[in-house]
Amino acid sequence: MCSQELLGFDRPLELIRHTHRRLEQRCALMQRLLGHLNERGCDADARATAGHIVRFFEEEMARHHEDEELAFYDAVVEVAPSKNRSTIAKLVVELRDEHERLQAVWRDVLRPQLTAIMEGRSQALNREAVDRCQLLYVDHVEREEQMLLPIAEKRFTREQLERLGRGMAERRNEPYPGGA
Length: 180
Ligand SMILES: [Fe+2]
Ligand SMILES: [Fe+2]
Known about the structure:
Layout: H1 2-7, H2 12-40, H3 44-79, H4 85-118, H5 127-155, H6 158-171
The structure holds fe (ii) ion (FE2) (2 copies).
Residues 16, 20, 64, 68, 141, 144 line the site of one fe (ii) ion.
């Protein structure tokens, strides 16, 4: 929550970038947790770290995917220069599909394993799933930042930025800066 409070929903594109940095940190944290579990087993630190990662993906990343799928992606396609609009539209279809695949790795493997670690019931964490999640996200975020965010930063109107930011605030039940 502190990220939103520091930046504010009136700066939605910076918030999107900020969430990407936090995501990269959480992926690195999952890698460190693998090593920690190997060396120290499921101790109090491992349980706390697992809980931290679960909350991040269940709350912040779930909302982030919604922000992109319900508002950001379509708005970028809408303002994209006509000469590359079809490329951007195609990219957005791929990115939506990747959200599904990322969600499947999280839901089917990482969430149940991390929840069991958090609750001290197991110390199993699948390295392949952690690697896959990290690799998929690195590539996914890179394309969002290289292909979509520059268009949004250059071409979104003040109204579009406000609509995006207000939607983000609403999905988190948080106030929009300056009131309604
Ligand atoms: Fe995304
Ligand atoms: Fe993203």
